[in-house]
Amino acid sequence: YTPVPGEAGNGDTNGNGSPAATLPPNVFGPATCTALSYLNDKSMFKEVLKINLIVTFVITFIIAFGVALFSKQIMNLYGSSYMDNYFLLIMLCVATLLISINGVIGQVLVGSGKMWIGLLFNLFWAILMLSSSWYFIWQGLGGVSIAYALIFSYALLSVIQFLYVFKMMKN
Predict the structure, then answer these.
(1) Tens digit of each residue's pLDDT (9 = 90 or more) over 131-145
(2) Among 29, 37, 77, 107, which residue carries the largest CB count within 10 Å?
(3) Separation in Å, CA 113 to CA 34, 107, 109, 139
(4) What's the pTM?
């Protein structure tokens, strides 16, 4: 398959939005995981989780918002035929925000020794991502199919993981 200029999702414009926006969970994740694994106090556990979620959300939002704000100019760097697909980049910024938040929740599962639950969540996400990608591609949405699938799968995963973590913190 040869990429066609102007078709969203080709070349270097596909993927997970802005890799810089996923930096916060990758930087804070190991430290958070270590801190959470040693915390037996639920109120302190909640506080570390809350701070990590807020910091990750704010930093990721600022980066993703900046990329989305200049999406037309960024897409124009790939060539004028890509500029019409700036909305794809905005969608990937939304997906990146969800990916970053899910990274924090993943660290909570690791830090609390719930690795098998994390595996089940990842398996659920993979099945959801593949099936929704197939569905959106089947609808003829082209390159934006994967962006829709990312947003859909991570949004649903976020809801389910948050419900699980909140339940876990209550017990």
Answers:
(1) 999 999 999 988 789
(2) 107
(3) 11, 10, 6, 40
(4) 0.76
